[in-house]
Amino acid sequence: MIKVSIIGKGKWGKIICKELSKLNVSWVTSMLADWIIISTPNDLHYSQVKYWLNLKKNVFCEKPL
Fold first, then answer.
1. Which residues of 35-52 are buried (b: 16+ CB within 10 A; e: fewer)?
2. Which band of pLDDT confidence, cut at 50, 70 and 90, is reported for residue 64?
3. How many CB atoms within 10 Å of residue 4?
4. Are 34 and 12 in contact (CB under 8 A)?
5. Per residue in 44-60, pLDDT tens?
6. Which contacts (CB < 8 Å, 24+ apart) does range 55-60 have?
7. DSSP states of the chain as a string?
8. How many C-alpha atoms does 50 have within 13 Å on its Cβ side?
9. φ and ψ at 43, to 5 degrees?
10. Quick count: other Cβ atoms within 10 Å of Cβ 33?
11. What is the pTM of this model?
């Protein structure tokens, strides 16, 4: 089972959560996740993606950096 954490639960965050809930994923806190999904405002993406990549996490950013 893939462990996923999402950062940002606005409009797109809710859509991503809904779609991933159809799959076999386990929602966990960020530090325990295999995948981090970034769904925050655009101006926060770069610093958040950089942070999680430095911790060797798989990152999906829903918009460009």
1. bbbbbbeeeebeebbeeb
2. confident
3. 21
4. no
5. 999 999 999 999 999 99
6. 57/33, 58/34, 59/35, 60/35, 60/36
7. -EEEEEE--SHHHHHHHHHHHTSSEEE--GGG-SEEEE-S-HHHHHHHHHHHHHTT-EEEESS--
8. 6
9. -70, -10
10. 21
11. 0.87
CA atoms of 65 and 63, how far apart (whole Å):
7
Query: Two tokens at 7?
Result: 């950062």
Sheet containing strand 2-7, strands side by side: 25-27, 2-7, 35-38, 58-61
**Rg, the chain, Cα only:** 11
Instruction: Give the residue among 31, 24, 34 at the shortest CA–CA distance from 4.
Output: 34
Cα gap 62→54, rounded to integer Å: 19
